## 1
Amino acid sequence: MQRRMRLLMAVAVLATALGVGFDGASTPACAQGNACAANCRAAHNQCRIATKGSPSCDAQLRACLQSCTRR
């Protein structure tokens, strides 16, 4: 019983170190994609502030998000 618990703990530590969640959805690539999208949204907010809501900001956001999915 203790051996099994140690094995499970070792697997959990390894998965955490590798950035893999137990649901399989949490991967380093996913984290990079989320960071890229967050950067796009931050730039979009700054664009809308600077241009007082110009529609061109929305086009820039779409292009930026598309570049995140291509990576």
## 2
Amino acid sequence: MKLITRLNETEQKTLEYMRDNHKRKITRKRAHSILLNQEGYSFRKIGDILDVCRQSVSNWVKTWEMDGIAGLIEKKHRYDQKS
């Protein structure tokens, strides 16, 4: 299992806020996964807690490392856009 680099205070608070308040459930789960990873939980255990597969957790951590907070926010889908 790969642990992310230590979160700074701003990242920690932002992720906690996202976990508790973001309008999209998937974004709340992604933020929660980063917080759990920071606490040392394995990808498999995080997946069990969040009811997702281990690979999803691995992908979210990788995206976090590459793109930070912006990488956790779901991009708009074609069906979300107004015509």
## 3
Amino acid sequence: MELLTAKQVASLLNVSKSLVYRLKDEGVLPFYKVGRSAVRFIRHDVEEYLTSCQGNKESNGGARRGPPRLRSFKHLDGERLLAAWQRQGVDVSPPGERSAPPSSSSCAPSTPKQS
């Protein structure tokens, strides 16, 4: 059993070290913690991952294991968000219920005063 560092795995896969850590965090690439902070990978696991990425004509470039990455907010609480906006003085009326308050300036072009 050969243990590899993230740098060695990155070199083996010809990718960045940050991608190796992302694959680890997504649960796609198994890892082992040695001591408090050292992260190590087993060569066999890395080779198995690489084999799972092998594409063919029907695939879109490789198998993806693990959960999909979410690119949105996860824990929004509407009531807390509304209360926070109100504390900041934001008008939280539902759309269409009332229009925006008038401003003191106008966007219309000014006309010269006639005497």
